[in-house]
Amino acid sequence: MHAITGITGQVGGAVARSLLAQGQRVRAVVRDARKGEAWAALGCEVAVADIEDASALAHAFHGVASAFILPPPVFDPAPGFVEARAVVAAVRQALLAARPPRTVCLSTIGAQAAQQNLLSQRTLMEEALAALPLPVCFLRPGWFLENLAWDIAPARESGVLPSFLQPLDRPVPMVATQDVGALAAELLQQAGDLPRVVELEGPQRVSPRDLAAALAAALQRPVQAEAVRREDWEALFRSQGMRNPLPRMRMLDGFNEGWIRFEGPDAVVRKGRTGLAEVLRGLMSPGIQA
User: Fold this and answer.
1) What ranges do the domains of the chain cover?
2) 152 Cβ neighbours under 8 A, 6+ residues apart
3) Is 2-289 CATH 3.40.50.720?
4) Residues 47-94 pLDDT 10s
5) Contact 50, 87 (CB under 8 A)
6) How many CB atoms are closer than 10 A to CB 13?
7) pTM over the 0.70 mark
C-alpha cells in the first residue's frame, strides 16, 4: 500500500495512476472525503487528513509500504514562510509517528540554493525531513511544462508570450508532470536504499522562444516571446492580487541569474520522456474541443 498526498493535483494524480497501472494498492490522502470519491471508484483506499494535521497524517501513513509527500504550493507566502513551516512541522511529526519504510517527497530544482526565494519553502522541507532517522528521498524536478497553460490565452489573443524567464534564448530545465509522477512511483517501489536526492528534467531543455514556437505551431498563428521588464514585475504581481511578491521575483531572478539550477552534474540528472509538443497538445485539447 502506498499513501499519496496531493492526489487531487497533477503530480499526485500522476503518481497514483502510475502505481494503479502497475497493480499497486494506493491510499488516497485527501482533505475532503468528497474529493476522494473518484479515487475510491478506481479502487483506492481513502484517508481524510489535512496536510497540517499531524495526527490525521500519521493515521493515513500507518501500515503503508511507502508515502509520497506533496507539500501544497503557496505562490504568495506570508513573510517567513509561515504556511510552509506549519506543513513541515506536521509532516515531520507524522512521519516520525508512522515510520513508513520509505518516503518520497516532492521538492524542486534549486532547493539547495542559499538565496531566499519562493522555492525556499522546499528547502525548509528538505532540511527538516533529511534529519529524520528514516529513508527519505527528495525528488527535484525542473520547471513544470504545464505552466504553459497560463500562456495559451494571451498567445491566442495577441500573438505574444510574456516571459519572466530571460534571456529569451536561454534553455531552462523543464519537465512534464506525468514524468514526475512516473519517476516518483518508481522510487516508491524501488528495492534497496533510496537515494537522498533525485533530479529530473525533460528530454530537452526549453527556452522562452521554444515555448513561443510551440504555441505558434499549435495555434497556427505567429507567436513571439517578449521579456517582461524586471522593473515592472512588482507592480504587475501586486495588480494580480499578490501581497508579498518578492519571493516569486527572487525565484525568477534565480533562474535568470543561474543560481537556481540542478545540484548534481548533468550526467546524473534523470531525463523524462515527454516533450513540449506532447504536453501542449494535452493542454490545448479541451480548448480545441470547445
Assistant:
1) 2-289
2) 215, 219, 283, 284, 287
3) yes
4) 999 999 999 999 999 999 999 999 999 999 999 999 999 999 999 999
5) no
6) 19
7) yes
